[in-house]
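Q: My labmate handed me this sequence with no annotations at all. I'd like to see what the chain might look like in three dimensions before we decide whether it's worth expressing. Could you predict it?
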Amino acid sequence: MRITVYDVLEFLASGMSEEEILSDFPDLTTEDIRACLAFAADRERRLVSSPPE
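A: Here is what I predict for the chain of 53 residues:
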């Protein structure tokens, strides 16, 4: 089963704890969840710092 970054972020935003996510999706690791957060932070930084075309 593949879980998208979007899905993980939605789970966190809806109030699920990291432990709940890991319990529901045993193939995920704490590092995977942190990688999702890092990806989102990097994407946000790029969107904010990119000048409009």
